[in-house]
Amino acid sequence: MKQRIIWVFVLGFALASAAAAQTKTSGTISCAKPDPTYSLDVADRAGHALGLSKYACTWTKGMVIAGVVTKDGTDVTASDSSGMRVRLSGYHVSNMANGDKIFVRFFGTETEGKGGKPATSAGRWSYTGGTGKFKGITGKGTYKGKTDANGNIVSDVEGEYTLPAKK
Which domains are present in the chain? Predict the structure, then answer.
């Protein structure tokens, strides 16, 4: 019985330590108009199309991860649009100030505004890996954005991360 109580205590301490290891972070990213961008009509109903786009992005307020700031990056996005609503998924690669990279997978929705341009964007993301100091990073978060006067999609990003313990 004593051994079981000790194991419960050890397991509880380990879980509390793991939860404490998650660190919150946030930032703001601006992604320019896509280049290139491709769109194909599905032809099953009016306004239904699939797309593929690549965006150059700049962190206007960098996320600080383990003391290193995000600088810029690239989004590659697949979209499924129907009417004023667009479902999207894709990958983001951020370049860090120290030369390392972080990799993210995201899912979300956009609403279209005037001229078929995105008006708002929101979704969830998670880390899929990184290089150097960020190898093995895990975590997740959310983003919410809108299009600015220049046509850039500006998103507030927040979440949490955990880096593997150094050996």
Answer: 24-162 (2.40.350.10)
